[in-house]
């Protein structure tokens, strides 16, 4: 009984020991805050990675793709059965993008993905990432398509009327082999390619066909029935990071995004066709929408293009049969936990020399592993803070044992056993650990709960944003508190406090009663 | 001759000081019968406190035996000796040795708290508190229950220490210079209290002192000099 009385009494009267648990408290609070924020970031990041990638991705080994998507999709249907919720094919290829801004051509490398919006929307979020939906310019119930919004159309018309289009990209015609499949297919399918201003290159006008400049000849050649304000046949959703830059607003002093290209503008894309050896293809496209996934890797890299058009210009349509090639099949599952199993089955069924079958996590494996590794290392480092606090407790306890030597002698004289004396100090350590981690948990959870208010306060004090939402694309700092994490952190801290009190407690227990009584 | 309640037989004890062994007791015999008030007198360094500590099982002799009712107890396992200290002996020290964090009442209750684990103490705590109140009343400190030792005078602290020694209902009270730190008037009050306890409760008291006048009030006095018994004086 006396052990608990003394342990609680020491807790109330020895303020130096309370000082030692401040470090335990801070360690616990920091671990909770860091883990919650990292978990929040991680979940949010996984959501976004997953959103762009679909559950299971089957990609062809060759960038030229494989023919007959229907046959392969039937095969997936047979293997996956009712596990499959949606499927879509796409073509993924590297390319270059060129547009003019402030009279300067700007060229950037991109990943060009040919998609069919309805199909893409069936395997993951799409409209959630499109600027027009985010800004409420389209009906949120509508399916994404390749049409301009009214605003973008109006912008395009004004732009055409103003005649501000001063496209000057030099023609860069590939040396098409007149007999090659690709050039033939383009010739067959691309007869409506819109034309560009004089000296410019409309994307894929087949060689030999007369280049007509609709802007110069608008009035003189109305018989062409080409509406110059109509978007081009090639249409894209373009990654936000590719066509924007940040600058400080001189009026407000805040960072703002400036778009260099807006929906309704035309840009130039170049990629390769499927000929052997691959030749360059250049295509003029109209920007339909801006893609904002929130992942800068995607936003500064991805350009979604209409699938049919990309297949046409790359020569991925077999003449005669009209069978189209694809490079990826994206699959959405009803239950993602089955993905591993399905991937195993698909790997067995799809020839490994032609296809790579992966879950989205396999595909982003190194990134996810890096995040986990980061989190683990941070935890180790932060736990060391608590371990350091443990040494503080150890030192202070030794001091208290020395200070209490005579009291220990008294208690032994009154019949206290060595184990009883030891448990006074162990209970004391336990009490310190419980108080320290309890207060730490409370502070940590409060911090996490009000992290955005705290961030605002800190930004106000320091005069610069602590958390720049433009960098992370989060309007708020994402957090996720896992009860188990809180439990383990608190338990770890309590254990360290108890472990740190073992040595001083043993010393106290071994004190000789007579020598202790005589201690001055 | 009846078996003494407590006896120390041929006790030898020395302390190490670095390489040196300093003999403190060189074959001392001492015994007290039930209800006897025995005083041990000697100069500083004569070994009288060491003898008291050995008899109270706070230390073990190098040679010799300590017997309780004829049974050897100094070689018992430490757990048993702890228990004997708690149940059989009551200790009073020159410097009172109260625990500074506890109130007077809690200090008095300490031996009972040491004896009982939480689960047996807690249900009977009211009973124990009443016991403590009774004893504190006997030593005349009922008005000081909630005071800390630092708020008590020397005499009050020693009376509190006596109350603490009594609550465990010991058979033998071991007092190490109980008046050594008090003025003669307060010392006299403490001695009166000890005599009253000895007479009323037939409590065996062994008291160590260097004060002849204090020692003279005991039934019997053992005089120690340089670790050896000099003489035993019988008081009528």
Quickly give the structural class of chain B: alpha/beta
CATH class of chain B: Alpha Beta
The overall pLDDT of chain A, averaged over residues, is: 80
- Give the helix tally of chain A: 18
User: What is the alpha-carbon Rg of chain B in Å?
Assistant: 18 Å
CA-based shape of chain B: globular
Oligomer: heterodimer
Greatest interface (CB-CB under 8 A), with counts per chain: A-B, 25 and 34 residues
The CATH homologous superfamily of chain B is called P-loop containing nucleotide triphosphate hydrolases
Uncertain runs of chain A: 165-223
Can you tell me the number of structural domains of chain A? 2
In the CATH hierarchy, the architecture of chain B is 3-Layer(aba) Sandwich
What is the fold named in CATH at topology level of chain B? Rossmann fold
Cα(first) to Cα(last) distance of chain A is: 27 Å
What does the average pLDDT of chain B come to? 86
């Amino acid at each position: 009984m006396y052990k608990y009385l003394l342990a609680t009494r020491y807790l109330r009267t020895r303020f130096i020991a309370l000082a030692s648990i401040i470090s335990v408290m801070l360690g616990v609070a920091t671990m909770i805050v860091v883990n919650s924020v990292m978990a929040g970031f991680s979940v949010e990041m996984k959501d976004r990675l997953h959103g762009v990638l679909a559950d299971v991705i089957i990609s062809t080994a060759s960038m030229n793709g494989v023919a007959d998507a229907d046959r392969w999709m039937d095969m997936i249907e047979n293997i996956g059965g009712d596990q499959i919720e949606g499927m879509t094919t796409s073509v993924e290829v590297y390319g270059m993008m060129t547009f003019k801004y402030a009279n300067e051509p700007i060229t950037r490398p991109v990943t060009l993905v040919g998609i069919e919006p309805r199909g893409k929307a069936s395997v993951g979020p799409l409209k959630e990432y499109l600027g027009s939906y985010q800004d409420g310019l389209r009906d949120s119930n509508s399916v994404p398509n390749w049409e301009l919004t009214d605003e973008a159309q109006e912008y395009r018309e004004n732009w055409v009327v103003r005649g501000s289009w001063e496209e000057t990209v030099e023609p860069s015609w590939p040396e098409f082999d007149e007999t090659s499949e690709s050039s033939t297919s383009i010739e067959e399918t691309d007869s409506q390619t819109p034309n560009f201003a004089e000296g410019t290159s409309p994307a894929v006008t087949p060689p030999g066909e007369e280049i007509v400049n609709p802007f110069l000849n608008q009035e003189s050649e109305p018989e062409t029935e080409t509406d110059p304000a109509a978007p081009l046949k090639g249409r894209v959703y373009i990654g936000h990071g590719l066509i924007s830059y940040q600058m400080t607003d001189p009026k407000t002093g805040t960072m703002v995004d400036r778009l260099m290209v807006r929906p309704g503008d035309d840009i130039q894309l170049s990629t390769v066709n499927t000929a052997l050896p691959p030749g360059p293809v250049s295509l003029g496209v109209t920007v339909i929408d801006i893609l904002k996934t929130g992942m800068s890797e995607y936003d500064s890299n991805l350009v979604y293009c209409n699938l049919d058009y990309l297949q046409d210009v790359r020569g991925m349509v077999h003449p005669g049969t009209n069978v189209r090639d694809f490079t990826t099949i994206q699959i959405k599952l009803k239950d993602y936990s089955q993905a591993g199993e399905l991937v195993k089955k698909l790997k067995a069924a799809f020839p490994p020399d032609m296809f790579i079958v992966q879950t989205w996590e396999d595909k982003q494996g190194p990134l996810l592993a890096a995040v986990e590794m980061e989190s683990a290392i941070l935890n180790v480092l932060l736990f060391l803070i608590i371990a350091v606090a443990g040494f503080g407790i150890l030192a202070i306890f030794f001091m208290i044992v020395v200070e209490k030597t005579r009291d220990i002698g008294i208690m032994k004289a009154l019949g206290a056993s060595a184990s009883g004396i030891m448990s006074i100090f162990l209970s004391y350590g336990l009490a310190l650990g419980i108080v320290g981690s309890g207060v730490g948990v409370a502070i940590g959870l409060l911090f996490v709960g009000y992290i955005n208010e705290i961030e605002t306060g800190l930004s106000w004090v320091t005069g610069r944003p602590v958390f720049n939402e433009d960098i992370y694309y989060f309007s708020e700092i994402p957090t996720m508190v896992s009860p188990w994490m809180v439990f383990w952190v608190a338990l770890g801290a309590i254990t360290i406090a108890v472990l740190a009190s073992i040595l001083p407690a043993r010393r106290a227990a071994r004190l000789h009663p007579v020598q202790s009584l005589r201690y001055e | 001759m009846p078996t003494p309640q407590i006896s120390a037989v041929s006790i030898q004890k020395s302390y190490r000081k670095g390489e040196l062994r300093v003999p403190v007791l060189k074959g001392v015999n001492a015994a007290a019968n039930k209800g006897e008030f025995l005083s041990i007198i000697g100069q500083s360094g004569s070994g009288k406190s060491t003898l008291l500590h050995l008899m109270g099982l706070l230390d073990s002799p190098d040679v010799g035996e300590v017997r309780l009712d004829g049974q050897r107890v100094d070689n018992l396992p430490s757990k048993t000796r702890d228990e004997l200290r708690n149940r059989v002996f009551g200790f009073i020290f020159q410097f009172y040795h109260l625990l500074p964090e506890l109130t007077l009442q809690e200090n008095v209750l300490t031996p009972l708290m040491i004896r009982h684990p939480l689960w047996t103490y807690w249900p009977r705590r009211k009973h124990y508190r009443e016991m403590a109140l009774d004893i504190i009343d006997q030593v005349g400190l009922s008005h000081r229950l909630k005071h800390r030792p630092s708020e008590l005078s020397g005499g009050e602290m020693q009376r509190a220490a006596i109350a603490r020694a009594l609550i465990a209902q010991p058979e033998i009270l071991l007092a190490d210079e109980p008046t050594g730190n008090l003025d003669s008037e307060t010392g006299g009050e403490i001695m009166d209290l000890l005599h009253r306890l000895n007479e009323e409760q037939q409590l065996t008291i062994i008291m160590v002192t260097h004060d002849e006048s204090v020692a003279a009030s005991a039934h019997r006095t053992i005089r120690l000099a340089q670790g050896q018994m000099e003489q035993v004086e019988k008081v009528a």
